[in-house]
């Protein structure tokens, strides 16, 4: 299907992917995803970011073949999205997953293993291994309705690993979890990358993702607003300098140097771009009788980028 | 990417044609085996019809029958009739409803003095007739029809064919087979009656050693045949006890004592007890046609304008006398006709055996100066008819007359 | 096929733990058990009472269970998002639908087996003999409910559960009514082909549930049936073909469905 030659290192590719929802009489339409071009490469952790309602889950559902694109194309593992053959090699963890509550942890994993077509005795072996790996061996024979949210998430991850997939698609994997569970999942994600797996992680929470992602894409209102390597996107932090007893004469020259000075309790606080100009600012302050209290570099965070991007998007 | 599903559509089409073909083949068999046999009755509420059609026919019929039974025990007889109709429509193979319903119609509608309303008998016969039409392979309803003639209508001649039909079924209850022999005897067909007994004895003989019950059955049949033979020899043999004929000196009078209350008195010169005289008061010329085909379709409606009273009075000391009060049941006795006939009948066929020993089952040993009726080939009877006008019965205008 | 079996198994496991269904089943079992207590009202109609009561309750319970169970089978999976974990596995949509249907049929088989056993026991106790005829009626009701289950499952691929209750119940009533309706019309000489032919067509198109209502001759065994075996074979074949038809229809719609 389609004339695209898929480079073997491209695990996910979308071309002008558009998904439009319409009410059944067709009078109202919502464009959940607009002209999305995306490439995810083998072995990377790809962060798929955006606020709630940005179109992340819609994109994932298209990639899984649960939704059909209105226009454009989507390829996963070299095949058109939804091809059941590729489903042997990928795994999906939905946001806040629910399972058959009456089943025990072991039963639900056995159920999914059967869906993957994993035969016995391989099936039992793998189920037990994974229960062990996600730390649920002791709860294996308890019904899922007794599980905490974190335990359910771990079951969700375990069912993702049953088929030893090449690609894992995780939708908001840390949503609603406590901080310790966050760290557990982050460690697991890193471990999976070590094994050479590709991870496609959607999130609207940023702190846990920013540390592990190789590349991120930011989606807002269905449109891709930023995509790139994390270092590239985060380049351009700033240096904060605090001084006292400074005359107001310095403000204008600092602004000319690209800084953002402000007064706070009689102290001068300057946010200076991380481009070496801070030396000249220090000279300026000293020359005007100022006393420097601290000079501290700040890196730009993903959160800053996110907020800037989304606000930029809103201004448009 | 969406599936293209041309093949599935083709499969869908094939399956559709296949199911249509199967359904077309199923319909006639369903119609033969499982369809309700009557047309839908009018007067059912939509919910009742809906439940009925929804496949709960038999269930609903069962529930209704339980309810009808409740009505029966509380004496609400009129409420039972529509129930009967509904139940047999929903479940036309419910034999019990037919038998009980017919018995109910034949026997349970009575006046204050427990005289049953004879106007309902043709309804009961029609109801049974319909039951037989729906269930021709079951002996019960033929028997019930025969019993209705034999016992209620006291017409052994017309009882015989129905009882014969019932006796053809191998699964009929043994004791009920005797009714045919009794009916044949009362109908004056003595040879055939004894024939039936001897066949029944042969049947019972094979089984008589099986258990006590079978043995008793055999004994009863032998005893019955012996008695019948003895009766025939005594009554109709070379030295018949029925000769010479006894003059019955039959007579009867009617006196209106109060409006709609008559006093009937009479005389029957029979020396032993156990004779009964039947009295019928009816609109003049309006006899009831006791035939299953008298009604074209089954209905619960009787002729509300018809007055038809029938009673049976015991004879003691060669006399009989009864005051018959028809004033309390205006529904049964509307007295709409201008003229009425009061008929007195003595029928030896239903007299007690000691009387029959003297006059014969068929009345060959009796005679009467005025009222001997020989029109019925199966038996000689005594019959007197008196006519009354509406004014006389209601005591309008002139004083009570005595005839 | 393993995936289909797994889905069917999970569906069965969930259904037999569904409280509404088990309450209906339990109520039916209790009513069947106590039905002989009504015998004093039945007079000579004891057999009629026990039989029609039992068959009526079994059919009623089976019908309700089929509809209630199947309206939720697919919508619930979508609502709680379990379907995403299933369809993201190497499972085709048709396998999912087939698994759901088989699970529902399995549940009905279990429910009918329970009710049938209790009914057999009750008839044995109150009528004094085992009535193997009862099994015939139960089997036919099982097929009736299974066909109803496929109708409901079919509707559930494109209407909401609430609409589905009424739609399925409506089709069930219609499907019970058409044969009798056609019969009445065919017996009436005054009906013109203009009326008769549409009724005939409708009778052929709609799933015919009246085919399976064979309890009457079991309640009143005196009736002689013509070609009973042929009737049974044809009717069961009809049920299977019609269920396959509805399954294919469900798959066609579900393949297009977005969740």
Could you please describe the fold and organization of this structure?
Chain A is an alpha/beta fold. Chain A folds into 2 domains: 10-233, Rossmann fold, CATH 3.40.50.300; 237-299, Alpha-Beta Plaits (2-Layer Sandwich). Chain A is 32% helix and 30% strand. In chain A, the strands form 3 sheets. Chain A has a 6-stranded mixed sheet, sandwiched between helices. In chain A, strand 7 (167-171), helix 5 and strand 8 form a beta-alpha-beta unit. Chain B has helices at residues 6-33, 46-53, 57-73, 77-90, 95-107, 121-134, 139-153, 156-167, 178-186, 190-207, 212-236, 353-359, 390-394; strands spanning 246-247, 251-258, 261-267, 276-283, 308-314, 319-325, 339-346, 366-367, 372-373, 381-389. Chain B starts with 5 loop residues before the first helix and ends in a 9-residue tail after the last helix. Chain B contains 13 helices and 10 strands. In chain B, a hairpin with a 7-residue loop joins strand 9 (372-373) and strand 10. Chain B folds into 2 domains: 46-236, Serine Threonine Protein Phosphatase 5, Tetratricopeptide repeat, CATH 1.25.40.10; 246-394, Immunoglobulin-like. A 5-stranded antiparallel sheet of chain B has the order 5-4-7-10-9. Mean pLDDT of chain B is 86; it is low at 38-45. Chain C has 259 residues and is an all-alpha fold. Chain C has helices spanning 2-15, 19-34, 39-42, 46-79, 82-87, 93-127, 133-156, 161-187, 193-205, 215-219, 228-256. In chain C, helix 4 runs parallel beside helix 7 (133-156), helix 6 (93-127) runs antiparallel to helix 7 (133-156) and helix 8 packs across helix 9 (193-205). Chains B and C meet through helix 1, helix 3 and helix 5 of B and helix 4, helix 8, helix 9, helix 10 and helix 11 of C.
């Amino acid at each position: 299907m389609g004339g695209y030659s898929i480079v073997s290192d491209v695990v996910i590719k979308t071309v002008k992917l558009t998904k439009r929802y319409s009410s059944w009489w067709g009078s109202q339409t919502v464009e959940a995803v607009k002209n999305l071009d995306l490439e995810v490469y083998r072995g990377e952790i790809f962060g798929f970011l955006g606020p709630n309602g940005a179109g992340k889950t819609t994109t994932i559902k298209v990639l899984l073949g649960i939704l059909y694109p209105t226009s454009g194309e989507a390829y996963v593992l070299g095949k058109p999205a939804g091809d059941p053959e590729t489903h042997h090699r990928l795994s999906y963890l939905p946001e806040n997953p629910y399972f058959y509550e009456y089943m025990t942890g072991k039963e639900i994993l056995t159920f999914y293993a059967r869906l993957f077509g994993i035969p016995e005795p391989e099936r039992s072996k793998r189920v037990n291994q994974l229960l062990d790996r996600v730390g649920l061996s002791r709860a294996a024979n308890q019904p899922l309705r007794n599980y905490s949210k974190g335990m359910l998430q771990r079951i969700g991850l375990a069912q993702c690993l049953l088929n030893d997939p090449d690609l894992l698609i995780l939708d908001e994997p840390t949503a609603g979890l406590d901080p310790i569970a966050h760290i557990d999942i982050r460690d697991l994600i890193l471990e999976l990358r070590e094994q050479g797996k590709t991870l496609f992680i959607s999130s609207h929470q940023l702190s846990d993702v920013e540390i592990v992602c190789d590349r991120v894409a930011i989606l807002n209102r269905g449109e891709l607003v930023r995509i790139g390597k994390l270092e590239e996107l985060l380049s351009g932090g700033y240096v904060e300098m605090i001084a006292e007893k400074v005359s107001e004469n310095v403000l204008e020259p600092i602004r000319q140097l690209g800084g953002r000075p402000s007064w706070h309790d009689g102290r001068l606080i300057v946010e200076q771009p991380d481009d070496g100009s801070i030396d000249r600012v220090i000279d300026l302050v000293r020359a005007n009788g100022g006393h420097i209290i601290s000079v501290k570099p700040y890196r730009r965070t993903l959160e800053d980028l996110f907020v800037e991007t989304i606000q930029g998007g809103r201004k448009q | 990417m969406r599936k293209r599903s041309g093949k599935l559509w083709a499969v869908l089409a094939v399956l559709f044609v296949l199911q249509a073909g199967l359904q077309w083949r199923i319909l006639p068999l369903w119609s033969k085996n499982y369809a309700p046999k009557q047309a839908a009755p009018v007067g059912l509420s939509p919910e009742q019809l809906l439940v009925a059609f929804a496949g709960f026919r038999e269930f609903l019929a069962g529930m209704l029958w339980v309810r009808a039974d409740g009505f029966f025990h509380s004496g609400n007889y009129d409420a039972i009739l529509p129930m009967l109709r509904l139940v047999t429509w929903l479940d036309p193979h419910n034999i019990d409803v037919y038998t009980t319903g017919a018995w109910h119609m034949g026997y349970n509608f009575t006046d204050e003095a427990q005289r049953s309303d004879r106007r309902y008998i043709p309804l009961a016969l029609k109801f049974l007739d319909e039951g037989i039409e729906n269930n021709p392979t079951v002996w019960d309803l033929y028997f019930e029809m025969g019993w209705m003639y034999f016992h209620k209508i006291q017409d052994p001649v017309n009882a015989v064919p129905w009882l014969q039909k019932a006796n053809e079924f191998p699964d009929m209850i043994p004791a009920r087979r005797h009714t045919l022999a009794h009916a044949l005897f009362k109908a004056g067909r003595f040879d055939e009656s004894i024939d039936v007994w001897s066949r029944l004895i042969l049947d019972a003989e094979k089984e008589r050693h099986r258990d006590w019950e079978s043995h008793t059955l055999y004994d009863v049949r032998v005893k019955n045949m012996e008695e019948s033979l003895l009766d025939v020899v005594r009554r109709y043999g070379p030295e018949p006890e029925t000769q010479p004929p006894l003059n019955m000196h039959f007579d009867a009078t009617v006196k209106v004592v109060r409006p709609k209350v008559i006093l009937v008195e009479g005389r029957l010169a029979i020396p032993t007890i156990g004779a009964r005289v039947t009295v019928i008061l009816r609109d003049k010329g309006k006899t009831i046609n006791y035939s299953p085909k008298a009604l074209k379709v089954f209905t619960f409606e009787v002729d509300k304008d018809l007055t038809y009273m029938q009673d049976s009075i015991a004879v003691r000391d060669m006399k009989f006398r009864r005051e018959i009060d028809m004033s309390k049941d205006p529904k049964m006795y509307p007295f709409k006709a201008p003229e009425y006939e009061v008929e007195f009948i003595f029928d030896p066929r239903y007299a007690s055996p000691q009387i029959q020993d003297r006059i014969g089952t068929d009345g060959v040993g009796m005679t009467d100066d005025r009222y001997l009726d020989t029109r019925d080939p199966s038996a000689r009877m005594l019959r007197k008819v008196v006519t009354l006008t509406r004014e006389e019965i209601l005591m309008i205008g002139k004083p009570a007359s005595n005839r | 096929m393993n995936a289909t079996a797994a889905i069917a198994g999970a569906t069965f496991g969930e259904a037999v733990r569904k409280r509404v269904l088990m309450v209906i089943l339990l109520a039916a079992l209790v009513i069947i058990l106590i039905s002989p207590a009504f015998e004093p009202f039945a007079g000579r109609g004891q057999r009629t009472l026990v039989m029609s009561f039992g068959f009526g309750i079994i059919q009623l319970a089976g019908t309700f269970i089929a509809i209630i169970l199947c309206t939720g089978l697919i919508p619930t999976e979508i609502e709680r998002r379990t379907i995403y974990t299933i369809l993201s596995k190497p499972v085709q949509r048709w396998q999912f639908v087939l698994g759901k249907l088989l699970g529902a049929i399995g549940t009905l088989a279990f429910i009918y087996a329970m009710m049938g056993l209790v009914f057999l026991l009750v008839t044995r106790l109150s009528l004094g003999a085992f009535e193997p005829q009862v099994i015939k009626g139960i089997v036919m009701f099982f097929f009736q409910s299974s066909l109803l289950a496929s109708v409901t499952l079919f509707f559930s691929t494109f209407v909401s559960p609430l609409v589905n209750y009424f739609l399925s119940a409506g089709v069930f009533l219609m499907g019970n009514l058409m044969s009798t309706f056609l019969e009445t019309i065919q017996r009436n000489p005054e009906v013109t082909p203009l009326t008769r032919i549409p009724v005939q067509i409708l009778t052929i198109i709609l799933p015919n549930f009246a085919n399976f209502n064979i309890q009457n001759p079991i309640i009143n065994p005196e009736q002689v049936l013509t070609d009973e075996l042929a009737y049974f074979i044809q009717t069961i074949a009809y049920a299977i073909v019609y269920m396959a038809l509805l399954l294919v229809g469900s798959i066609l719609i579900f393949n297009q469905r977005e969740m």
